[in-house]
Amino acid sequence: MLSVNKLSKSYNLNQIFRDVSFSVRAGEKIGFVGPNGCGKTTLLRILNGEEKQDAGTFQFQPENLKRAYLPQGYQPDDAETIQQFVYRRLDIPPHLDAELERLTLALSRNPADDAIASAYDQVLKLIAAAAALEAEIHKVLHGLGLDQLGWDFPVEKLSGGQKTRLVLAGTLLLQPDLLMLDEPTNHLDIQMLQWLEDWLLAFRGGLLLVSHDRVFLDRVCTAILEMDAATGKTRMYAGNYSQYLDEKAREQERQWTAFQDQQEEIRQLKAAAAHLRNIAKFRVGGKADSGDKFARGFFANRGKATVGRATQIEERIDKILSEEKIEKPGAQWQMKLDFNGVQQTGRDVLILEDASIGYPERLLIRPTRAVLSYGARCCLIGPNGCGKTSLIKTILGDLPPLSGGIRLGSQVKPGYMEQDQKSIRDEDTALSYLQSIAPMNETAARTFLHKFLFSGDDVFTPVSRLSFGERARLMLAGLSANGSNFLILDEPLNHLDIPSRNRFEQALSGFEGTILTVVHDRYFIRHFATEIWEIADDRIRMEK
After folding, report:
1. Using one digit for the tens of pLDDT, what is the confidence trace for 108-137?
2. Which CATH number among 3.40.1180.10, 3.40.50.720, 3.40.50.1000, 3.40.50.300 corresponds to the domain 348-543?
3. Which residues of 311-329 are buried (b: 16+ CB within 10 A; e: fewer)?
4. Which end of the chain is more exposed for a tag (fewer CB within 10 A), N or C?
């Protein structure tokens, strides 16, 4: 289906990846993982013909293999309706009914016109093809939360997340033999994620999937393709993401054992070489000075032989270090942050007093009584549009409750991280951003930022050049510097790769205050949450 052989790509002097080789067969579902910037998207773009490789080849079998590619950030045409977008994506001409009506009239006037008759037959075939796809189209649109909007809904009125889901729907509906998806889970709620998982599990073609959703990779994938950022090379692992992690852990354990064994061998060889050289010095220096000519010659020769054996051992050590060296396994990355002694609040941090949430024209959440206690790690979940962000706005005072009240407990200082990261200006640097929040001189600010992995000249890098993960860390640094003891996070894991998600989760684990976060990452929910607030059917259901 797809064969990739020693692909390499560089930008100027920056090697992105090299000698990448793998294959995708029918029915295989391969998860493509690695940190942001390692070349995953570039590789997909090359396979889709949007970029050229520097070296290597790839081949589709057969050459006319039907394939579909979902890029990140692709936006549909705002001038279209949902139907027009879908029809254009599927190469279905628009306005077929009107065209059929026109041709019917023309044929009634000129029944012997072969050209009109042929056009009439072609339109009938297109209408039949569109009808055959109708059920699948609505199935996919429904699964992605778009069906209820209607065919004639303007694309320009869709939210950013809805536009992303529309592009995904159009890609799935192509029904290709090979499907290449770059971060398809962005802007999907848990229900939509589960629907997409089921759709892909039923998909019979080949799949090459870039995703940072660990549960998604677990459910869907039959193999994991890892891109090593340090070497620019790939390696294939059989099984899903959890099996990949298990194998990586076993590899690290084997490497650690081999490293320790080699270090012990080197220690013993060094000790043996040093011992032999000491013997040689003793024999030459001790007996050769006795005045006995025979002894001088005998012990000098014995000394040379001993030095020779020592030299052989040292050459063996050099060979180990140059040709056979086993690198020390990298330490498991841990980030324990100092949040500068978070001020403890009272027992009750957030109190909902029969609060109803929404807008005059639309009630989102019915009157609710709820309390969030100090130290809680609360995940706020629910389908897109259910009112999660509106609840956050109400907590922050940006949206008044429709009825009842919401109040914060004593000594509570909230800190908010929005999902679009708009609070950080592109022209800011990490240093200027932090200094705009907290009164620090440059030395203090740089020391503070170092805790959040901004070191050296990193603090002067413009925000526009920071990755999403780096921006998230910077915003967390700002909340910490500001003395926030109640973190309110709206989709903080969006656009973060798996290593960055792990780091962010570790960072949050060191926070001693209270956290309320909107999140769809099921791995994060399982491992982080102490309680869950789920919005469904206009109500908040609380689970601890």
Report:
1. 888 888 888 888 888 888 888 777 778 888
2. 3.40.50.300
3. eebbebbeeeeeeeeeeee
4. C
